[in-house]
Amino acid sequence: MRNLVGLRGITRTISAVALAMAIAGCGSSVAGSTYIDNGGVVQIEFKSGGKAYVSTGPVSHTCSYTQSGKNLTLNCDGDKIVFIVEDDALNGPPNGFLGRLTKKK
């Protein structure tokens, strides 16, 4: 009977660790990544520490960002844009200037 109780405890621990790893992987960080739009005109380079560089053609702006799970908020000169982080893409607001950006490889 003791071995059965110990086995249940180990099974619960393994399940809890697996669940925590799955949740942590759901919102991978964008830090160190660059995302571009379909035409390559807009590019956002995310640095660590919440700093981002947004380039539109030859013009570049320093911005900041915060990320909470799959939600990413980009703040440029007081304008905020909320993205949903997917595996290799950022989805911006529907009908917005920055609709979908894909991760640069």
Structural class assignment? alpha+beta
Mass-distribution shape: globular
Amino- and carboxy-terminal Cα gap: 54 Å
Strand segment tally: 8
* Main sheet: strand order: 1-2-3-4-5-6-7-8
Spans of at least 5 consecutive residues whose pLDDT stays below 50 are 11-25
Note the total helix count. 1
Q: Percent of residues in beta strands?
A: 35-45%
What are the secondary-structure elements, in order, as H or E? HEEEEEEEE
- Helix share bin: 10-25%
Most strands sheet: 8 strands, antiparallel, barrel
**What's the alpha carbon Rg, rounded to whole Å?**
19 Å
* Mean pLDDT over all positions: 81
What does this structure look like?
The chain contains one helix and eight strands. The chain has a domain of 70 residues. The termini are far apart. It has 105 residues and is of the alpha+beta class. The protein is 24% helix and 42% strand. About 14% of the residues have low confidence. Strands 1-2-3-4-5-6-7-8 form an eight-stranded antiparallel barrel. A hairpin with a 2-residue loop joins strand 3 and strand 4.
Concise account of the structure shown:
The protein is α+β, with helices and mostly antiparallel strands. The protein has one helix at about 1-25; strands spanning about 35, 40-45, 50-55, 60-70, 70-75, 80-85, 90, 100-105.
Reconstruct the topology from this structure.
Layout: H1 2-26, E1 34-36, E2 42-46, E3 51-56, E4 59-68, E5 71-76, E6 79-85, E7 89-91, E8 100-103
Antiparallel strand pairs: 1-2, 1-8, 2-3, 3-4, 4-5, 5-6, 6-7, 7-8
